[in-house]
Amino acid sequence: MPDGALPRDAVHAYVDSLAAPERARVGEDVLAGIRAGGYLLTNPFEAVDAGIRRTLAVSGVDVPGGTHVGAFPHRSLHARTHTVEGATLILLDTGLRPLLDRVAATLVAYQLTTAPGQRRAGPNPPPAADRRQRRDEADAAFAAAVLAFLRGEAGEPAETLDTFGFFMARSAERFALGHEYGHLLAGHRHAPPGHDERSARREYEADELAAMLILRGVDDAAEFRWRALAVAGPFLFLAVEQLVNQVRGTADEQHVSPARRTQALRTIFEQAGARGLMHFAEAWVSSLLLREAAIVRRARA
Ligand SMILES: [Zn+2]
């Protein structure tokens, strides 16, 4: 079981350890709010964390004691892992859940109303003008979700996050958190990815463990579609990260781009014998990638 609430003294020490550029990105007002709140951070990822720990436990892997998961307003999709005061804090971004929920809800709603052969489209696909309008609405919703994340706003909660979207968004969180566990369990130094080959290799290693956690966590008895939705999570996460980087204009700064990680992920799933699941999974996320340029244009307008 997860260790419960984040220890406040460790959170306090973590906040004090932030360097000036990080403080600036988080915002002094936000940090002041955390201080005023007595360094109490909530953990919206408790259920996701518990799932990962169960999978690790059945795989015979022990999570080091004193490891805590929580949310922190980094404004970065790459989580932070920090060891202070004898505790290891894995901190995902506070905005990650609303961002993934909104994107997944839009993705599922858009696919179900436009893709031929899907549930609600029926034998008579909607006319072209309708499809265009839905596509524009989806682009606008994706752009709004990314902008809300970058501004650090909670944003509107996803209106109709149906079961498909919910499942895909939680799996994306599982991948993001599993990636951090990958670094932790592989004994990588806690640092944001740098620009050398060694650091790149660590990123791929962490992704590999995260992908294995997804596959091991899948119920083999579940219907194919549900297993594919779980595999869609990592692709959703990386597509969203790419979109955020493009809108923010930081896509070229990264040595290990989400596109390269996606490519490596395909190899991992193929080697794990999950090629069929992967193709179905990527189809769920494909409309986000196909619309990327239009979404970025809209968000930056
Ligand atoms: Zn990493």
TrEMBL record:
Sequence segments annotated as region (Disordered): 116-135
At the top level of its lineage, which domain of life is listed? Bacteria
Q: What is this protein called?
A: IrrE N-terminal-like domain-containing protein
